[in-house]
């Protein structure tokens, strides 16, 4: 089997952390790629109908991939807490745990992740489909696309908070 840094067999915990990091790379990396590379290139595509179709197809494909990554993140994140001995009422129900640097970093990460889930759902299942259904180039389509883009940018910024909190957790808080 795979070996860890001590020369021993890779543990389920290390495998789980690896899957968690890969899912985060896929979700956050995809978001950053679309925001920094994809959207600026697509905004230059003419005619407007082709631009709208490309945005829609990229969005639908990334939505599928992104929500699978989110599901993996939720499962592996929960398992990470279990493996670390945190997933118990005696720990999570303790005010002293949440006062520790590790507890504070976990709180920041959980709040940021929950916010990202809500923003992603609004973007993917409300504004995105409305923008795609609007007549390309119309004032309504432009307004909806601007709102969807704003949500995507907000999610990217929240994603940075998740990464900062994750690094703090990995380093003990």
Structure report:
This protein is elongated. The chain is built from six helices and no strands. The protein is mainly α and 173 residues long.
Instruction: Report low-confidence residues grouped into runs of 5 or more.
Output: none
Largest sheet: none
Cα-atom Rg, whole angstroms?
19 Å
- Total strand segments: 0
Q: How much β-strand is present in the residues?
A: under 5%
Order of helices and strands: HHHHHH
Number of helices: 6
Overall shape: elongated
Question: Which class best fits the helix and strand makeup?
Answer: mainly alpha
* Helix fraction bin: over 70%
Average of the residue pLDDT scores: 89
Report, as a whole number of angstroms, the end-to-end distance. Answer: 31 Å
Defining traits:
mainly alpha; 6 helices; 82% helix; elongated
Question: Which helices and strands appear, and what pairs or packs with what?
Answer:
Blueprint: H1 12-42, H2 48-83, H3 89-92, H4 95-99, H5 101-133, H6 139-170
Helix pairs in contact: 1-2, 1-6, 2-5, 5-6
TL;DR?
By secondary structure, this protein is mainly alpha-helical. It has 6 helices and no strands.
């Amino acid at each position: 089997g795979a070996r860890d840094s001590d020369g021993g067999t890779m543990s389920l915990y290390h495998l789980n952390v690896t899957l968690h990091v890969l899912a985060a790379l896929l979700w956050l990396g995809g978001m950053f790629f679309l925001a920094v590379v994809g959207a600026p290139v697509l905004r230059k595509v003419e005619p407007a109908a082709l631009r709208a179709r490309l945005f829609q197809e990229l969005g639908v494909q990334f939505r599928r991939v992104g929500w699978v990554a989110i599901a993996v993140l939720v499962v592996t994140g929960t398992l990470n807490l279990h493996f670390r001995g945190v997933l118990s009422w005696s720990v999570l129900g303790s005010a002293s745990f949440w006062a520790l640097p590790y507890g504070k970093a976990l709180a920041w990460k959980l709040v940021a992740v929950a916010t990202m889930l809500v923003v992603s759902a609004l973007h993917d299942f409300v504004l995105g489909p409305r923008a795609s259904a609007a007549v390309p180039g119309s004032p309504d389509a432009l307004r909806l696309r601007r709102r969807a883009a704003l949500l995507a940018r907000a999610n990217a910024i929240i994603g940075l908070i998740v990464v900062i909190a994750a690094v703090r957790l990995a380093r003990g808080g």
